Amino acid sequence: MAWPAIIRYATVLVLLLLPPPPCATEDRLVPGKPLSPGATIVSDGGSFALGFFSPTNSTPAKLYLGIWYNDIPRLTVVWVANREIPVTNTTSSPPALSLTNASNLVLSDADGHVLWTTDVTGAAAGNATAVLMDTGNLVIWSPDGTNLWQSFDHPADTFLPGMRIRIRYETRAGKRLVSWKGPDDPSPGSFSFGGDPETFLQIFVWNATRPIWRSGPWTGDSFSVQVQFQMVISVIVNLNVVNTKKEIYITFSLSPGAAHTRYVLTDSGEYQLQTWNSASSAWAVLSEWTGGYCSRYGYCGPNGYCDNRWDGNPSTCKCLDGFAPANPEGWSSGRFSPGCRRKEALQCSDGFLALPGMKSPDKFVLVENRTFQECAAECTRNCSCVAYAYADLSTSRIKGDVTRCLVWTGELIDTEKIGVNAGSETLYLRIAGLDAALSLAWFKFKENPDDRPLMSSVVFTLENGSTTLPAPNNPGHYGQRSSDLEQIRDRTENSMNSLTLTNIEGR
Q1: pLDDT of residue 282
Q2: Measured on CA atoms in the order 24, 25, 29, 32, is the torsion positive or negative?
Q3: Dihedrals φ, ψ of 462, to 5°?
Q4: How far does the signal peptide extend, from start to end residue (predicted)?
Q5: Does residue 297 contact residue 212 with C-beta atoms inside 8 Å?
Q6: Is residue 231's pLDDT more than 60?
Q7: What is the separation, in whole angstroms, between the first and last Cα of the chain?
Q8: Based on C-alpha coordinates, what's the Rg of the chain?
Q9: What are the structural domains of the chain?
Q10: Which of 221, 252, 225, 251 minimizes the C-alpha distance to 398?
Q11: Contacts of 339 (CB under 8 A, 6+ apart)
Q12: Burial call 203-226: b when 16+ CB within 10 Å, e when fewer
């Protein structure tokens, strides 16, 4: 036999004797076939992989069981199982992930010590399977198709399309995004993102227990935004709030064919919308909610508000009507935390000023089953009530009470003027010295021409100080001026990144 033939024969023989590479292409784990370091489970469409990873170059390597994007060149982990207990990988004691006959995923070391488990209870013993879906969701399915457990219910730092960030009404329990401790440390950090368990109506980012950002109360809107990056990447994000009798949650979906897009809570506390830019092989930050001064919780202090400007001028802190800076010298030098105090004490007969385009303050009380007129009356007859806001939720995904009456009795914290867009509403603020009848007449004059009082009634009120007017109707829609829209369009087209509101719709 010639040497070339012998070499080819020997090469083939060696290849046949070598074990197959530890890389599985199946999308599932079954009992009796554990997953070890070096092997992966890949979702059916190839978008995600499940396996062991090491974020650092420590020796011996600390391993975590996680899920990451499989079809991009940069390791981007979206879920981690054993965040608090990394595994030390050695040849004599490799970890393994197994699916037990009791339908539980169990991560253990070579000595059998359980490091992490799914804790499925009540499932009948049988041929369950753990499947990695092409959404990035790891699901344990029973033989009859029942979902016994899923990773989407136990998020890490990433909010993926189809995932739900929820709070259950009965227990006030909900899952939060929790940041990594550092860029290379998946252990739980100090920042978290989730729904407010006290009100069920707003979203927070916390640093430990201290709020650092707040979405504002839900106004009933679901909305779709088209986000563009450097005029190259375009993706439509459809964000929905769903309210049932048992829970309230937020979820989102993407336009068909969109690049990988996710919300992520970074280790420094930024809540970002990111999309994968294949041209630069990097994540592009499309939007960020916790970066600016106005986004900081309570930045302008009690009874102050941050005026978000659309005319090119910088945003700034201002006092609400009827208030003045508590520390004028500090206020003029940019120290806003003391906030504002009333110029005059309130009287029970004082009226309310309508402030449209606001993100309503925190620390409200929800009064259920009230019409707009009843909400206004609820605050008017309570001398301690300093403000109220109303929203009609009848066109949203909600079951039960479709009204949303909020009242405030103390200091107004974390208020913003955000213009007329999704999440904004009219805040009705009690003003010292404002005659109740005059404020009502002015409100009706501004909102609906059909409801404007006769001029003779206004003159009579001015001459006599008070009069009796009928209860107000529901507030009319406050529309943004076309010139304002042109300013927004000009500003976003000239920026590197733009976020354009394309549709606001009740769901």
Answers
A1: 94
A2: negative
A3: -65, -35
A4: 1-25
A5: yes
A6: no
A7: 77
A8: 29
A9: 22-154 (2.90.10.10), 304-464 (no CATH)
A10: 221
A11: 300, 301, 302, 303, 304, 325, 326, 411
A12: bbbbeeeebbbbbbbbbbbbbbbe
Give the whole-angstrom CA distance, residue 127 versus residue 489: 57
State the DSSP H helix or E strand holding residue 11, giving kind and residue range, or none if neither.
Answer: helix 3-17
Q: Pick the residue with more confidence: 507 or 105?
A: 105
**C-alpha to C-alpha distance for 448 and 452, rounded to whole angstroms:** 7
d(CA 127, CA 143): 6
Is residue 119 very low, low, confident or very high in pLDDT (cuts 50, 70, 90)? confident
Phi, psi torsion values for 3, nearest 5 degrees: -60, -45
In sequence order, which residues have a C-beta less than 8 Å from that of residue 425 and are 6 or more positions away?
A: 217, 219, 356, 358, 360, 389, 390, 391
Q: Are 358 and 428 in contact (CB under 8 A)?
A: no
Q: Which residue has the tokens 């037990």?
A: 100
265, β-bridge pairs: 271
Q: What is the DSSP letter of 148?
A: E
Select the more confidently predicted residue: 453 or 310: 310
CA distance 181 to 190: 7
Q: Rounded to 10 degrees, what is the CA torsion of 453, 457, 462, 466?
A: -90
